[in-house]
């Protein structure tokens, strides 16, 4: 989830536990900063290893067992510059920060990227696929309710209402995901396919239009599902699943590039394919700006001439404004671009 929403939700959680003798604004500030703090793991990077951040983002800082430690660290660091001046004691500073910190990983798990909630006991990237990473229909009401709660003569009811929104919107997303998944499964079966794996995930900024990806007989099939009053399908494209002996015959099994490819495949949950026009580029087909397309948002570039060099990591945002307009039309009226 985007940092602003994470901070707002953290502030809302702290506001719900606010004590009258404490400064409301500083209580919310503690929750806001702690609510964003887990994403500091994006600073774990290496100039010689382009995939390092993929391993550590949403890893230990986002695990359930790390919440008390994360809250403690934030509470200690923010006590002197922020909490003490608002007549907030050290223990309360830690408590407010822990509440704010606790919201982060759970909200991230509602999105599609994957969050290691059970680290270090499991490296599974949990993704409930009920919300987009950015969703204004979720964020804007949080802003309004938090402002109401923190305004002069603050309305204490606004913070609990905001927490109810936190729970109800992902629940609605779960209902929408199930509708989209049923439609995607029916679509596959209408083609005579028995999906070996199938995922549906919300497209950018909404829970109305969904991307469906399923694997069958060595190929991935990508379609868009619009789950409005009536569920409609916008059929997309298919692409062959990555087959290393066939697609990358030069790749040495014990080389660094082979290990990097394995890391990228793990991160992508196996939804990888060779770029249709670039023979050394491997794409993650789960994400695209338009949900019925296979135009990946990120990929890795291998180099057959240097098997012991690290792979390159690439992001793709070409023509995003034009695709944004097309996405809007698909959301509003379900028409294909």
UniProtKB/TrEMBL annotation:
Q: Which residues cross the membrane?
A: 64-82, 89-107, 127-150
Keyword Magnesium carried by entry: no
- Is Repressor a UniProt keyword of this protein? no
Q: Which UniProt keywords apply?
A: Hydrolase, Membrane, Transmembrane, Transmembrane helix
Which GO molecular function terms does the record list?
Answer: hydrolase activity
Q: Please identify the protein, giving its name as recorded.
A: Metal-dependent hydrolase
Species of the source: Spongiibacter thalassae
């Amino acid at each position: 989830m985007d940092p602003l929403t994470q901070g707002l939700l953290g502030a809302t959680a702290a506001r719900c536990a606010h004590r009258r003798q404490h400064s409301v604004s500083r209580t919310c500030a503690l929750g806001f900063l702690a609510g964003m703090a887990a994403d500091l793991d994006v600073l774990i990077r290496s100039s010689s290893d382009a995939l390092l951040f993929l391993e550590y983002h949403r890893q230990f800082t986002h695990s359930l067992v790390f919440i008390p430690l994360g809250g403690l660290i934030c509470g200690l660091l923010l006590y002197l510059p922020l909490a003490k001046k608002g007549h907030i004691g050290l223990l309360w500073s830690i408590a407010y920060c822990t509440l704010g910190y606790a919201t982060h990983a759970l909200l991230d798990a509602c999105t599609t990227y994957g969050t290691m909630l059970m680290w270090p006991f499991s490296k599974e990237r949990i993704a409930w696929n009920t919300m987009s990473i950015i969703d204004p229909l979720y964020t804007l009401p949080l802003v309004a309710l938090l402002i109401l709660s923190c305004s002069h003569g603050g309305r204490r009811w606004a913070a609990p209402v905001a927490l109810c929104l936190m729970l109800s919107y992902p629940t609605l997303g779960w209902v929408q995901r199930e509708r989209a998944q049923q439609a995607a499964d029916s679509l596959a079966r209408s083609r005579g396919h028995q999906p070996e794996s199938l995922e549906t995930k919300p497209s950018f900024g909404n829970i109305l239009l969904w991307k469906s990806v399923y694997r069958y007989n060595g190929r991935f099939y990508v379609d868009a599902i619009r789950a409005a009053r009536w569920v409609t399908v916008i059929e997309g494209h298919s692409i062959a699943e990555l087959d290393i002996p066939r697609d990358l015959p030069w790749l040495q099994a014990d080389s660094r590039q082979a290990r990097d490819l394995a890391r990228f495949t793990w991160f992508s949950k196996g939804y990888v394919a060779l770029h249709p026009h670039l023979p050394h580029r491997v794409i993650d087909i789960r994400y695209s700006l338009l949900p019925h397309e296979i135009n990946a948002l990120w990929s890795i570039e291998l180099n057959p001439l240097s098997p012991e060099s690290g792979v390159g990591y690439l992001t793709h945002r070409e023509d995003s404004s034009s695709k944004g307009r097309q996405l809007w039309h698909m959301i509003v009226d379900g028409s294909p671009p």
